[in-house]
Amino acid sequence: KMKTLKGAEVSAKIKEQVTQMMEGLEGPAPKLAIVRVGEKPDDMSYERGAVKKMENFGLRVRTYVFPEQISDSDFKAEFSAINRDPDVSGILLLRPLPKQIAETDIEKMIDPEKDLDGISPANIAKVFAGDKTGFAPCTAEAVIEVLKANEIDMTGKNVTIVGRSMVVGRPLSMLMLKENATVTICHTRTMDLEAECRRAEILVAAAGKAKMLDGRHVGQDAIVIDVGINVDENGKLCGDVDFQSIESMASMATPVPGGVGAVTTAVLAKHLVLAGQRQRRN
Ligand code: NAD
């Protein structure tokens, strides 16, 4: 019978690590700055999850909200002030930003030491070099955390990742390489998606298409990690994987909701404490 890999259990393990790390840290708990422009429901639901997690982990958090219409120069001035604030240990920028703001400028501006979600060129370079001293995107790292917490070794395994975005697919493929997996990356132009997926011992879905992967994409006893967060035809939250249809094939799978999402914010918290540690050593 297929085992459900619950995000809450992984998050609890990360909480133990975070609590231990905080014991060695003097002064007030590290503070996260969440930066949001506008009122997009997706951003606001991610923000609520992040705020709850920080509070639950005993960390400080403050949300900075700016109007949707804010100009590029005004936003840069505001962002720069947050970036320089010594009381702010880490920053989560909700993206994409409205189109009048040059997002790539912000990526270059953010202090790599506070860049908890790995959007700066310096952190991206470290992820691609297999250097763990920076910050990888939280969602990509959450996938690794789910596997490690469940004692699933990636060494030499065939891993197929569906999706090649800078937030999930690409950085995750690099983190998987670091774990010595044999990695295949699929995308919209992949010729035979079914075959590429079926070969996988570990299949990661990060395409953002409701229930696009089903039993036909899953090999016998494969482990399936579903990163997708979508709404189905009934307005219900669902992943990229049709969970019911893979039950007879997969050995383990993460649900949506209740899977990778809960781990992503736990990784964010861990990054915040790491940032706090590094900054106080300086
Ligand atoms: P994106 O749209 O930027 O990228 C999607 C990728 O999937 C693209 O590279 C595309 O080539 C590929 N793709 C799309 N349709 C495909 C198809 N039919 N066949 C093969 N490949 C296809 O999305 P993203 O930002 O990487 O996010 C992916 C999903 O993960 C979304 O559902 C998003 O909501 C979710 N997400 C979850 C978390 C979390 O914390 N769990 C965090 C970020 C994103």
What is this structure, in a nutshell?
The protein has 282 residues and is of the alpha/beta class. The protein has helices at residues 7-23, 41-56, 72-84, 103-109, 121-129, 138-149, 169-178, 193-198, 243-246, 260-281; strands spanning 3-4, 31-37, 60-66, 90-93, 158-162, 182-186, 202-205, 223-226, 230-231, 237-238, 252-253.
Helix amount: 40-55%
DSSP strand count: 11
Shape type: globular
Major sheet size, sense and barrel closure: 6 strands, parallel
Distance between the ends: 51 Å
Bound molecules: nicotinamide-adenine-dinucleotide
Order of helices and strands: EHEHEHEHHHEHEHEEEEHEH
Tell me the Rg in angstroms. 19 Å
What fraction strand?
15-25%
Question: Unreliable stretches, pLDDT < 50, 5 or more residues?
Answer: none
Order of strands across the main sheet: 1-11-8-7-5-6
Outline the structure in words.
The protein is an alpha/beta fold and 282 residues long. It contains ten helices and eleven strands. Helix content is 41%, strand content 16%. The structure holds nicotinamide-adenine-dinucleotide. Nicotinamide-adenine-dinucleotide (NAD) is lined by residues 139, 162-165, 167-169, 186-188, 190, 193, 206-209, 212, 227-230, 260-261, 264. Nicotinamide-adenine-dinucleotide binds at residues 139, 162-165, 167-169, 186-188, 190, 193, 206-209, 212, 227-230, 260-261, 264.
